[in-house]
Every structure is written in structure tokens, then in C-alpha cells.
């Protein structure tokens, strides 16, 4: 509802796949943001605020900031990484006051009903920002920022300074426009598919309501499931009446599981409960590092520790109800531990795994007895692993150690988003235009010499070019819709196995994906339609020990565009771009080319043009005077072909003119 065709949306690449399909339907152009990687655990965290700010500043530098309409982030992630939502909104609005925010809080619905957790939710942050705006607090904060920067127009401040400064939005220009999605069936009480969209938008009634209603009618059935709607109402009522108590017990259950697992020495020998220190880089949790210390985060979490961290200005925090168990030391990968041990042996079902970890989540229905049962199951697994080691031969121990080494030390690097193929990428021409504009503004020739800036000027120009190149690398949105539908025609695609694809890339060939490639786990697209494949991406899929990869056929391999198809499309695009830069005459085909004939003004006694001649003149041909032997015929382009064509036209006109004069004389 908030996007239009060709609008740019900044989006966390590891968001839910429904967002990606939404971009296809809306015709918007996604610019994918890379979350910080946790290579050792084969998972991603959140998108650093510095990366978001620099991307916005890059679009500002190339004159496309107004095209960026929406920022989509997952809060919290499946693994429990939670953003500082208020800080994200404030600093982004300082750069782009028109920006709309969408926070996917599918797994975070319960947070609104706890006084600590709700401080990092989208709706609470939006309400707090609006309250401070109405009370005038942002005016003083913005004045302090202006005094620090030396200007009240942030558009005049260079990108590097803004990227390193804690920004505050201009209260005269900002609008609070925040949306959140909650999957009630995942984290509260509702039947499957029961979800809600929360709206906190100053311009919703005036700008979005009609489009939102149309989008709702487009995607919803005219025969709704009233059972789902009823459970949504029941779930809302339940949390309104007793939400705080339920969420408090949910958090206490998570703390209880952590204590049970970390205090058991045998369990700790094979399994490790990951802490905020393991899952959040130290630079993004300064408060935790400086005031609590690393050891406090590594030890058991408490409600007091939780409050100190969550109410700080840390960029990321860890949801206490998410318990990630590292299985690498046991020699068991996440999928094997999930299926063959927990599910088959003990009936424990979990959703999320990675290459060397599994994720446990407590919810509002978790009981103390279920926590004790889970701990007993994991301890039983540890005992079985210990017994297997004691009874194993030397060769069997070597196999176990090799498995442990592979899971702990030989972790594949997580691939970043590469780029869209030039056929689908949009920013190249804009960046070139920005470069030309910057070059046009620089003094040249005598003016440059007069300033005495030959060497220094050259240095500045080189630095400017380097800066533009760095910014251009962040402007990487593409036409996802065009790539998606181009692949509908099977004549445009081919298939390659993973190893063949890697060999082709190493030989310098460019392979482009035709569909979303989504391995489970981690459950988000590692490749999207129109994206150029890289060796790192193929290596990641080769080393990923999973059986379920959407968009990838085990027998046929990668579904890719044929090279000839993209070459032809690129030629058409370049031709269209060249066509837009030409004059009307240059675009005309040869058979309809305009012919120009030079003529002197008529003098006294010269016969005036008849109606026939005027018609010829109106068609682009002008006749010379009949009595003037020096009349010259020329064509604007001056080439020989056109000159011949002009001569023929002039001769024809002269002949018709003689015939007309003869008829007039006879009359």
C-alpha cells in the first residue's frame, strides 16, 4: 500500500520471503542491506545502523533520496537479535524525513506486554517519538545538533560526518510513519495464519487508507475464516487481561533453562548456550561492555541485567526468550540433532537450526516441567555421546574429532548480496550523471590555475572520485519484477549444477539467478531473481548440509538465465538509453527522414507558391525561387545521401512548378 512502481525500498536481505514477493507485486526496486554475519554459527545478526545511514547518504549523493520510500527490518530476528528501534527511526528521519518504516515483528508480539521488552518495539518507539515531538523536546535536541555541526541544514553536511554523528531529526520536517506486522499464531494465542498489521502513520488517512483497503481486498478472500478472526480477538483479550504475568513467566522459564544447561558440566562439555557476547559484536553493545563487563554477559542472565541492557542506547540486544544451543562440540550438525536425537528419541520439536546450532524458544505457555524435561533430554544426549567416546576405537575417535573440527573450525563464510545484473540494475546511469555534475562544478583551465590548485585540486578530484565510487557501491537497487517475470518463459532459462556453476564463474562467466534460492535453514533468500552469482554464494550452498532448498532442483541444479537473453536485453536497454539522448531527426528511420531546402526570400515579381507548393512546404520541403538560378539545395546533416535526396526533391518541385506556370499561362 505504501509503495509504487519503481520506488526504492531498503530491506534486510534475510527478511521473510513474503516481503520479497511483495516487492515483485508492487514493482518496487529493493536495495538489499547485509546484516552482520556470524560465520562461526552460520547465521546473520541485524543490519548495522551505520550501514543503513551510509546507504541513505549514498542515495542522497546521487540525487535519488526522494525515490527511497520504505525501510524494512526484522525485529526481532529468528535468533533473537533486537534493534534499538527508536534510534533507527530518529537517525534515518534526520537524513530522509519522508521515510516510512516497516518492522517485521512476527516473533515479537509478546514484547508489547512487558515494561522492559516493549521499549524496543515499533509501536512503542513511534508513540514515544510523537509524544516528544508534540512536547517540543526535539527542538532543543536539534538545536544542539546544529550547534555541533555548524549548520541547520543537514543536507549541506558531508556524508562521512553524518555517518559518524548521532543524528536527531528536524522537527519542522519529520513525520512519524511506522508499521509493524505481528504473527499472533507464532508468539501469542491464535489459529495458524492469524496475524495483525499495526499502523502508526501520521499520513495514513490522507495518503494510504485507500491504497491499503484496495491491497487488502486484493489479497484477502471474500469468504474469510471467522474461526481465525475469533482467535485473534481471544488472543488480544487474553494479553490485555493477563499479558504481563504470562510474559514474565515466559522470561523466567528462559532464564531457568539457561541456568540448568550452563550449570551442568557434562552438558557444557558437548553443548554451549550462546550469550549476547557470542551473538552481538562488541562495537554494537558498548553499554554492556563498559558497564556490565564481558563476564556478566557470559554468565547467567538476570532480570536486573536485562533491564540495564535493554534500557541503554546499545544498538542491538538479545531477546532472553531465545536460547541458541551450539552443537559443534558434539560433532552433530543442527539438522541431525533436531531430527535423530530430539524429535525421534524424545519427541521434542524445534523449528530453527543452523549448520551447528539449534534454537529453543519459550512462549506464554511454557511450563517449569517442560523446562526440566528439555534439560533431561539434552543431558541424556550428552551421556550417550560420552559413552560413545569411551567405547570408541582410535579410528572412530578420529572420525568424531574430524566432524567436530568441520563444524567448529571449517565454517563457510556467509555470502553477502553481490549485485543485480546490468539488465536489471538501475543506478549506473544515475551515478554517472552525478559524476558528470560534480566534474562540471570543478574549475578548469585558467580558473583552476588562477587558484593555484593544480596539485591540490588533482588530489581533491581523485578523492572525490573515490568517494563517489564508494557511494555508488551502496546504491544497488534493481528491477526485481522484470527479472522475476522474464524467467517465466522457459526458453530464457537453463540449468547448471552447483559444481558446474562454480567452474563457470571461475572461468569468468557471469551467471544470473532466475528465482529465489532459499535454503532451509536459514530460511531466507541467498539469491534473488536478477542477482549475479558469486563463488562465495556457491561455496556456501555446497558446504550447507541441508536437504531443503527452495528454488534449486537437486537433479537439474541452478535455474539461470541464458547468456544470449541477457545480452539481447542489455542491447535493447542501451539502445533505448541512446535513443532518449538523441534529437527527433536522429530517431527517424531513413525512409521518413526530414528533407530541408534552403531558399531566398521572394522578391517583387516572383510568383507566389501555389496551394500545391504550400502543401509540399508543410510536409517539410521548401521550394526555391523559380527565377533564381543560384538557388542552393542542402540538407541539415550534410551527408551525401541526404544531399542526393534533396536534389531529387528540388528537381521534382521545379518540374511541377513549370507545369503549373504553363497551365496558368494557357488560362
UniProtKB/TrEMBL annotation:
<keyword id="KW-0808">Transferase</keyword>
<dbReference type="Pfam" id="PF01276">
    <property type="entry name" value="OKR_DC_1"/>
</dbReference>
<dbReference type="InterPro" id="IPR036633">
    <property type="entry name" value="Prn/Lys/Arg_de-COase_C_sf"/>
</dbReference>
<dbReference type="InterPro" id="IPR000310">
    <property type="entry name" value="Orn/Lys/Arg_deCO2ase_major_dom"/>
</dbReference>
<feature type="compositionally biased region" description="Basic and acidic residues">
    <location>
        <begin position="655"/>
        <end position="667"/>
    </location>
</feature>
<feature type="domain" description="Orn/Lys/Arg decarboxylases family 1 pyridoxal-P attachment site">
    <location>
        <begin position="176"/>
        <end position="368"/>
    </location>
</feature>
<feature type="domain" description="Orn/Lys/Arg decarboxylases family 1 pyridoxal-P attachment site">
    <location>
        <begin position="1"/>
        <end position="128"/>
    </location>
</feature>
<feature type="region of interest" description="Disordered">
    <location>
        <begin position="441"/>
        <end position="463"/>
    </location>
</feature>
<dbReference type="GO" id="GO:0008483">
    <property type="term" value="F:transaminase activity"/>
</dbReference>
<feature type="compositionally biased region" description="Polar residues">
    <location>
        <begin position="636"/>
        <end position="646"/>
    </location>
</feature>
<feature type="region of interest" description="Disordered">
    <location>
        <begin position="573"/>
        <end position="667"/>
    </location>
</feature>
<feature type="compositionally biased region" description="Low complexity">
    <location>
        <begin position="441"/>
        <end position="451"/>
    </location>
</feature>
<dbReference type="InterPro" id="IPR050881">
    <property type="entry name" value="LL-DAP_aminotransferase"/>
</dbReference>
<keyword id="KW-0032">Aminotransferase</keyword>
<dbReference type="InterPro" id="IPR015421">
    <property type="entry name" value="PyrdxlP-dep_Trfase_major"/>
</dbReference>
<feature type="compositionally biased region" description="Basic and acidic residues">
    <location>
        <begin position="452"/>
        <end position="463"/>
    </location>
</feature>
<dbReference type="InterPro" id="IPR015424">
    <property type="entry name" value="PyrdxlP-dep_Trfase"/>
</dbReference>
<protein>
    <submittedName>
        <fullName>Arginine decarboxylase</fullName>
    </submittedName>
</protein>
Amino acid at each position: 500500500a505504501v509503495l509504487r512502481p519503481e520506488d526504492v525500498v531498503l530491506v534486510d536481505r534475510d527478511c521473510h520471503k513474503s516481503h520479497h514477493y511483495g516487492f515483485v507485486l508492487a514493482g518496487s526496486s529493493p536495495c538489499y542491506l547485509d546484516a552482520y554475519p556470524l560465520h562461526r554459527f552460520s547465521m546473520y545478526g541485524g543490519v548495522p545502523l551505520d550501514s543503513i545511514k551510509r546507504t541513505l547518504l549514498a542515495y542522497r549523493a546521487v540525487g535519488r533520496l526522494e525515490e527511497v520510500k520504505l525501510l524494512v527490518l526484522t525485529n526481532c530476528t529468528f535468533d533473537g537479535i533486537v534493534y534499538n528501534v527508536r534510534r533507527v527511526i530518529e537517525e534515518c528521519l534526520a537524513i530522509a524525513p519522508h521515510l516510512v518504516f516497516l518492522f517485521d515483528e512476527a516473533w515479537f508480539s509478546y514484547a508489547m506486554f512487558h515494561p522492559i521488552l516493549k521499549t524496543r518495539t515499533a509501536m512503542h518507539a513511534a508513540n514515544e517519538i510523537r509524544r516528544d515531538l508534540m512536547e517540543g523536546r526535539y527542538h532543543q535536541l536539534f538545536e544542539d545538533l546544529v550547534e555541533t555541526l555548524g549548520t541547520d541544514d543537514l543536507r549541506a553536511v558531508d556524508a562521512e560526518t553524518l555517518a559518524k554523528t548521532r543524528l536527531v531529526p528536524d522537527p519542522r520536517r519529520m513525520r512519524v510513519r511506522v508499521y509493524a506486522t505481528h504473527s499472533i499464531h507464532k508468539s501469542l494465542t491464535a489459529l495458524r495464519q492469524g496475524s495483525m498489521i499495526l499502523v502508526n502513520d501520521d499520513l495514513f488517512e490522507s495518503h494510504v487508507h485507500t491504497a491499503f483497503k484496495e491491497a487488502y481486498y486484493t489479497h484477502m478472500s471474500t469468504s474469510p475464516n471467522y474461526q481465525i478472526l475469533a482467535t485473534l480477538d481471544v488472543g488480544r483479550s487474553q494479553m490485555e487481561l493477563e499479558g504481563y504475568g504470562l510474559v514474565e513467566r515466559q522470561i523466567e522459564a528462559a532464564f531457568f533453562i539457561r541456568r540448568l544447561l550452563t550449570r551442568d558440566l557434562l552438558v557444557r562439555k558437548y553443548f554451549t548456550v550462546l550469550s549476547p557476547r557470542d551473538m552481538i559484536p562488541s562495537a554494537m553493545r558498548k553499554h554492556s561492555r563498559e558497564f556490565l563487563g564481558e563476564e556478566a554477559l557470559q554468565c547467567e542472565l538476570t532480570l536486573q541485567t536485562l533491564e540495564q541492557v535493554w534500557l541503554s542506547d546499545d544498538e542491538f540486544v538479545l531477546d532472553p526468550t531465545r536460547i541458541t544451543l551450539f552443537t559443534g562440540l558434539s560433532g552433530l550438525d543442527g539438522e541431525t540433532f533436531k531430527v535423530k536425537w530430539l524429535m525421534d528419541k524424545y519427541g521434542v520439536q524445534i523449528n530453527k537450526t543452523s549448520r551447528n546450532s539449534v534454537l529453543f524458544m519459550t512462549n506464554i505457555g511454557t511450563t517449569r516441567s517442560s523446562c526440566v524435561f528439555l534439560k533431561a533430554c539434552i543431558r541424556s544426549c550428552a551421556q550417550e555421546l560420552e559413552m560413545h567416546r569411551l567405547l570408541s576405537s582410535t579410528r572412530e575417535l578420529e572420525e568424531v574429532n574430524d566432524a567436530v573440527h568441520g563444524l567448529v573450525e571449517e565454517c563457510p563464510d556467509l555470502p553477502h548480496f553481490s549485485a543485480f545484473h546490468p539488465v536489471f540494475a538501475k543506478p549506473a546511469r544515475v551515478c554517472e550523471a552525478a559524476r558528470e555534475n560534480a566534474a562540471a562544478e570543478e574549475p578548469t583551465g585558467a580558473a583552476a590555475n588562477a587558484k593555484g590548485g593544480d596539485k591540490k585540486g588533482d588530489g581533491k578530484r581523485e578523492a572525490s572520485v573515490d568517494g563517489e565510487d564508494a557511494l555508488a557501491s551502496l546504491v544497488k537497487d534493481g528491477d526485481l519484477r522484470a527479472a522475476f517475470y522474464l524467467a517465466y518463459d522457459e526458453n530464457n532459462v537453463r540449468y547448471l549444477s552447483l559444481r558446474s556453476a562454480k567452474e563457470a564463474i571461475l572461468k569468468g562467466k557471469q551467471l544470473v539467478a532466475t528465482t529465489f534460492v532459499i535454503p532451509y535453514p536459514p530460511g531466507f533468500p541467498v539469491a534473488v531473481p536478477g542477482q549475479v552469482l558469486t563463488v562465495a554464494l556457491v561455496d556456501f550452498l555446497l558446504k550447507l548440509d541441508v536437504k531443503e532448498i527452495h528454488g534449486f532442483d537437486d537433479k537439474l541444479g541452478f535455474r539461470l538465465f541464458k547468456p544470449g537473453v541477457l545480452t539481447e536485453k542489455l542491447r535493447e536497454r542501451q539502445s533505448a538509453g541512446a535513443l532518449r539522448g538523441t534529437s527527433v531527426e536522429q530517431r527517424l528511420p531513413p525512409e521518413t527522414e526530414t528533407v530541408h531546402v534552403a531558399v531566398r526570400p521572394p522578391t517583387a515579381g516572383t510568383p507566389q507558391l501555389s496551394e500545391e507548393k504550400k502543401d509540399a512546404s508543410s510536409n517539410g520541403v521548401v521550394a526555391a525561387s523559380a527565377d533564381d538560378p543560384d538557388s542552393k539545395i542542402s540538407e541539415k546533416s550534410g551527408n551525401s545521401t541526404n544531399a542526393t535526396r534533396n536534389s531529387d526533391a528540388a528537381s521534382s518541385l521545379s518540374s511541377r512548378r513549370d507545369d503549373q506556370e504553363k497551365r496558368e499561362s494557357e488560362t
